[in-house]
Structures are given as C-alpha cells and as structure tokens.
C-alpha cells in the first residue's frame, strides 16, 4: 500500500464537489459524500515510461510535457459532531497498486470493522479517500503511458491545495504516514505477477490500453497464515480489484529517492508482509529497520517505523486491522496537534 498523506491540516495517510450521495461509514457517527475534483496536472514525464526514476533523474531531452485536467473521484467522510480541535484536519487517503478508494472503507456491512474511514470518524477525524488518476471512477487516460509516477504525484499535490481552499487551512502537508512501504531498488518490478488488465478481465477492461495492468494473485497481500483473514475478504478483494499503469509499477523505485521533506514521517508495515518482511528477518529489529529507512528522510523533523505484529501487506484487510488503525489515528493526532 501507498501513503496516506496528512494534511492540516492535510495529511497524507501511505487520495470535486459534484454529487451529494450520503451514506454512513460506521454506525451513525459519520456522514460521507462522493465527490469529483477537477485537478490540473502540468508536469514533465519520461518519453520512455519504463524510466525507473519517473523522470526525476532524466535529462530534459528525455522528457515530454503532460498538460491535462483530470477528474479525481473521492469519498469525503466527516464526523457528525466535529471537535473544534480537529475541524481543520483532513486525512488524504491514497490507495496502493491495483486498489481504489474502497481499500479505506469496503462498502459492505460485513467488513465494517475494516473501514479506516469509519474508525477515524469515531475518533473525530475527517478523511478524503481518492481514486488515483487512471483508477476507479477518476479519469482514466486512453494512453496508459500518461499515468506515471509524476502524474499522480502532481495530482495529489494539487488536490491538497484544493482541499486547503475548501476547508480553510493554510498550512501544507503536516506529515506523511506510509503504509506497507519500505525501500526498494530502483526499477524493481510490480510486486507479484502483473497481468494485462484486458486479458485478466476482458468483460470489464477489454478495451483498455495493454499497458494498464493488474494482479491476479491477491493472496500475496495477506499473511501466509490463512486464519489471519477472512476468505470472504480475499474473494471481495478479487472482485473489486482495479488497475494501475505499467509505467507506475516500473517506477516504484522513484519512491526510494532521497527527499528534502522537513515534516514528520512514519512508516507502518506488517510483520507478516510477504512483500517486505515475512521470512526475511528485515522487520525483526525495529531500531535497525528505522535507521535504514530514515536514510531517505534525513531532513524530516521526526521519523519512526512501526511494525504491526501479525499484519500482512494490506494492513486494513486482515483480522489485525484495529492495531494499525489505532497507530494511524495516534500519529495523525500527534502530527497535527489535535
């Protein structure tokens, strides 16, 4: 999974205003509305989408300009009773590869305990969970090569600015919480076997550019122990999976470049994460892991790594979700001072 960005009172938590359809995310404590925000993206992206650094280290001659406006779909959830202390704090929730905004709140009563948006509402925090460009109900460019690392980075940044204007906060991102993410080698492939989406599910994606891909094996996102999650959740996961661009998958190493961000940063990973931790010993010593991961965030005001015991890659979707949820909320309150 990717971030979630915090903002202040935008946060990024390891993601418009058109319809007014309202539903309840958790009990009667939370009202949610589906939204679409037009986001203008004007960035330079690699002419070769296989560029592992997403253009961040490319020469100008190897770049092309992408100047487009996309509609970014999201679900905004707010407690029915908002504390004055947390009124200007919004969590911007960004999903990971082959997921959509539904990762943050599976839209079925059976899985209400896996809804982070509902959990956060119960703790008095608002959130905006989005579909990245190319995913779900957001604009999906005809050419998958337009959906690159820089494309969605620009879209999320513009969205944060828009959100600030909507709710009045003046500060930038207050902090970053990255979930299911550790340093990877530049050019590392998408975790697990990537499948051309139109071949995987022709009835749904048969007309897509072949460089839109998905994953057929969803079990890698869960702990190896099958008693750690509901088999019905895995079925639901397969049914609701989405796509990503091949370029974004190839550019996963771009997230392992040093940043000059000066705010607080935290990473939360599962001890049974098959992509990063399970069977590697990498996550056994949290102090050593934290020191290694901090290398890319040297200027951050604070940096911490949390290893959620028993959890897999998809921290939200197994039986241990409440532990990470508490960690997320504690970090949001710490970073924003609410």
From TrEMBL:
Name assigned to this protein: Uncharacterized protein
Sorted keywords for this record are:
Signal
Domain of life from the UniProt record = Eukaryota
Range of residues in the leader sequence: 1-27
Q: Which InterPro entries match?
A: AB_hydrolase_fold (IPR029058)
Q: Which Gene3D superfamilies match?
A: alpha/beta hydrolase
């Amino acid at each position: 999974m990717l971030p979630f960005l915090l903002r202040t009172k935008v946060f990024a938590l390891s993601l418009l205003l058109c319809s007014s359809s309202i539903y309840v995310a958790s009990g009667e404590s939370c009202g949610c509305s589906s939204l679409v925000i037009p986001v203008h993206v004007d960035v330079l992206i690699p002419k070769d989408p296989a560029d592992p650094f997403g253009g961040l280290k490319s020469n100008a001659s190897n770049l092309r300009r992408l100047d487009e406006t996309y509609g970014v779909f999201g679900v905004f959830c707010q407690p029915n009773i908002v504390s004055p202390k947390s009124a200007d704090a919004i969590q911007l929730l960004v999903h990971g590869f082959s997921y959509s905004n539904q990762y943050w709140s599976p839209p079925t009563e059976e899985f209400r305990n896996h809804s982070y948006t509902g959990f956060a509402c119960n703790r008095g925090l608002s959130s905006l969970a989005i579909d990245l460009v190319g995913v779900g109900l957001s604009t999906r460019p005809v050419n998958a090569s337009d959906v690159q690392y820089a494309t969605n980075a620009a879209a999320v940044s513009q969205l944060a600015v828009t959100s600030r204007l909507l709710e009045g906060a003046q500060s930038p991102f207050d902090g970053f919480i990255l979930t299911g993410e550790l340093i990877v080698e530049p050019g590392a492939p998408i975790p697990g076997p990537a499948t051309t989406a139109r071949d995987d599910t022709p009835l749904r994606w048969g007309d897509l550019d072949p460089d839109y891909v998905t994953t057929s094996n969803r079990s890698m996102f869960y702990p190896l122990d099958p008693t750690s999650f509901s088999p019905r959740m895995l079925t639901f996961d397969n049914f609701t999976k989405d796509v990503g661009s091949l370029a974004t998958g190839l550019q996963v190493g771009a997230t392992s470049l040093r940043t000059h961000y000066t705010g607080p940063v935290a990473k939360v990973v599962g001890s049974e994460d098959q992509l990063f931790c399970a069977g590697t010993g990498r996550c056994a010593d949290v102090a050593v892991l934290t020191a290694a991961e901090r290398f890319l965030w040297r200027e951050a005001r604070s940096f911490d790594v949390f290893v959620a015991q028993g959890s897999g890659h998809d921290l939200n979707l197994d039986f241990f979700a409440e532990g990470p949820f508490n960690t997320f909320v504690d970090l949001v309150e710490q970073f924003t001072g609410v």
